[in-house]
Amino acid sequence: MRTVRRQHLLIDSDAGDDRRINLLVKSFIKWCNAGSQKEGYNQYQHMLSTLFQCEFSVGKTLVVCDMNLRERENYEKIYKDIENSIAGANEKIAEGKKLILQAKQIRKNHQEYDALAKVIQHHPHRHETSKELGALGKEFQHLSHIKENPFHVLLSTNHKLQQTLENDEKLSVMKPKANAILTIMNRTKYLCLSFLSHVKSL
């Protein structure tokens, strides 16, 4: 048991290679100097055991080295995959930012369009407005004409009556009354002209 532990420590220690070589050299010297056949056989078996341990250690080291190489290749592949994934994620993030900016611009345009549409709804169409203004102008002209006709008739009648009274010199007895009527007609004419001027200014 002690021999197995000792050999295990020799193999697994930091300076195991040198110690194994020294152990083989010593075993070989003892085997050469063995006094009996049994002692030589024991030394021979000891050397074979040491050689087997060395071969096992070398094989183990080769397996570990091969495993480390494969793990390294695997890690390099994983590293490249991660780099590619990061690059793809960055591209998607950049595209997402562009889409967000476009969506914000579209939303802003929609809001401005809705606000403009609400403003337009409060104002009538230009064609309809022109049509309504034309109709109002015609109606105003018609009403003005209706208002002006009675005053023109009244003024014309007043003027004719005034001429009749002024030219009627034969009725000397009625002249004071005619003068009174003429005064009333003049005042009526003045009032009619003033009212007509006010109506036209509206």
Automatic annotation (TrEMBL):
Keywords: Coiled coil, Nucleus. It is found in: Nucleus. InterPro entries: THOC7/Mft1. Its main location: nucleus. Pfam families: THOC7. One of its GO terms (biological process) is mRNA processing. The keyword Heme does not apply. One of its GO terms (cellular component) is THO complex part of transcription export complex. Component of the THO subcomplex of the TREX complex which is thought to couple mRNA transcription, processing and nuclear export, and which specifically associates with spliced mRNA and not with unspliced pre-mRNA. Required for efficient export of polyadenylated RNA. Plays a key structural role in the oligomerization of the THO-DDX39B complex. Belongs to the THOC7 family. This is THO complex subunit 7 homolog.
